[in-house]
């Protein structure tokens, strides 16, 4: 069960809106009635200043053009997106490949799970520091060497497994992969830079990135399992390394879209000290528990290859919902929107619980498809709020903190649901995602209080 839960973690880092399953919006905002814009509104850039052109009264986003077409109009946007998707796909491959490779060689899924869990824990510690370096020195200067170091860690793991090295070397090698850059967060930062002052375009960008997270979650584990079984156990890891390095190099080469670094950087205040940030991270922690509990319970409920297909259906529902959500004009109050999305998630998570009582895999598949519909809108809205709370010169760090919170939630949800399933049965495990979603909903008002006008939640 571990490999599926951890594969979800890695794709969230890209977290997903995450991201995965995680997610972006922000950059200087135009004056708005949005409660989270804060007391110091900034003027929107003019057409000559490189920002989005003003829209007349009653004119829809993009003046009738497709919001996704308008999103990719800036030069270089398509190129950095292509590189980012190549670099993000391995996030769903590495943990699955590692589990198959280690378990096949050492005959122990417990060892394989412990190695990948250790890598996740180290990532939670290292990722914010890597993101801080990106904020201070630029994406290209940090992402390329960080990806190279992570690739060396994956190759070292492969060699240790192949050569029969002691078990402790597996932990050390996989821990080195924690430097993998958060390409999903860097991509969202680029969208915020390219469409600064255009809240509608940034909303569409967040939705597109969340859909990309879900797509990688669906394809990554399947691709890894196919490569490892059709060719040789190390094939998934080798392919992931090639995709990661190629994607990061293509992404970093698009310098025209890279957010600029301050000419005279100062010691930025940690985003954790921003009002409303800690309660919002608690919401992300509880939301991550929804993901982890749902995956482990589904794997235990079906106990076979079909479970992977059902998880892919849940991700597909989230992917479609994210794309649709990005094509419409959202409500103006982002904190209020987040509460609404969490309420919808809580309600929809009851569907798998009810479906599990029928004993029908078909009914459960439909329930998971609909349950996924609230995931992407929730993550898109949460990441939008993270961006608005985070100081401009710490944007990558702020988003990575959100991803770290989701990772912690996934780990906690996976572990708790595993114990619940063993003691009370697989069907009972579906109660945990409902409880975790309800907890996130209860925590959301605390995050809203920190984003009211007059709070110190806006960027300096």
Automatic annotation (TrEMBL):
Residues 20-68 are annotated as: Disordered. Keywords: Membrane, Transmembrane, Transmembrane helix. This is MFS transporter. The chain crosses the membrane at residues 85-103, 109-130, 142-165, 223-253, 274-294, 306-326, 338-355, 361-386, 398-415, 427-447. Residues 48-65 have a biased composition (Gly residues). It comes from Streptomyces lunaelactis. InterPro entries: MFS, MFS_trans_sf. The lineage of its organism: Bacteria, Bacillati, Actinomycetota, Actinomycetes, Kitasatosporales. One of its GO terms (molecular function) is transmembrane transporter activity.
């Amino acid at each position: 069960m571990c490999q599926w839960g951890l594969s979800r973690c890695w794709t969230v880092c890209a977290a997903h809106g995450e991201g995965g399953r995680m997610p972006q919006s922000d950059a200087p905002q135009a004056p708005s009635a949005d409660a989270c814009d804060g007391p110091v509104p900034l003027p929107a850039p003019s057409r000559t200043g490189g920002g989005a052109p003003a829209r007349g009264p009653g004119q829809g986003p993009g003046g009738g053009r497709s919001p996704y077409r308008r999103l990719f109009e800036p030069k270089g946007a398509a190129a950095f997106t292509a590189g980012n998707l190549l670099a993000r796909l391995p996030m769903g491959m590495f943990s699955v490949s590692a589990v198959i490779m280690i378990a096949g060689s050492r005959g122990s899924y417990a060892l394989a799970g412990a190695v990948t869990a250790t890598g996740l824990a180290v990532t939670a510690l290292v990722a914010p520091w890597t993101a801080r370096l990106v904020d201070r020195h630029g994406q290209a200067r940090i992402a390329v060497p960080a990806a190279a170091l992570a690739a060396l860690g994956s190759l070292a793991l492969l060699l240790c497994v192949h050569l029969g090295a002691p078990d402790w070397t597996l932990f050390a090698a996989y821990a080195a992969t924690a430097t993998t850059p958060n390409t999903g967060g860097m991509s969202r930062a680029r969208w915020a830079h390219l469409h600064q002052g255009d809240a509608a375009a940034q909303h569409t960008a967040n939705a597109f990135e969340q859909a990309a997270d879900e797509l990688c979650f669906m394809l990554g584990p399947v691709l890894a399992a196919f490569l490892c079984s059709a060719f040789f156990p190390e094939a998934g890891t080798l392919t992931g390394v090639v995709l990661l390095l190629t994607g990061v190099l293509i992404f970093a080469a698009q310098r025209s879209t890279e957010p600029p670094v301050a000419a005279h950087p100062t010691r930025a205040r940690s985003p954790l000290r921003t009002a409303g940030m800690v309660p919002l991270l608690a919401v992300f922690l509880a939301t991550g528990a929804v993901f982890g509990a749902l995956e482990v319970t589904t794997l235990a409920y079906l106990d076979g290859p079909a479970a992977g297909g059902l998880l892919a259906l849940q991700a597909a529902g989230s992917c479609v919902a994210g794309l649709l959500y990005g094509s419409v004009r959202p409500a103006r109050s982002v904190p209020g929107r987040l509460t609404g999305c969490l309420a919808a998630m809580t309600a929809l998570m009851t569907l798998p619980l009810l479906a599990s009582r029928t004993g029908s895999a078909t009914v459960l598949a439909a329930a998971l498809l609909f349950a996924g519909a609230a995931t992407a809108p929730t993550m898109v809205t949460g990441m939008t709020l993270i961006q608005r709370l985070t100081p401009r010169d710490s944007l990558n760090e702020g988003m990575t903190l959100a991803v770290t919170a989701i990772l912690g939630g996934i780990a906690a949800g996976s572990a708790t649901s595993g114990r619940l399933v063993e003691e009370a049965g697989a069907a009972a495990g579906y109660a945990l995602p409902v409880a975790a979603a309800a907890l996130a909903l209860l925590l959301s008002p605390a995050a809203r209080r920190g984003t009211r006008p007059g709070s110190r939640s806006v960027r300096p």
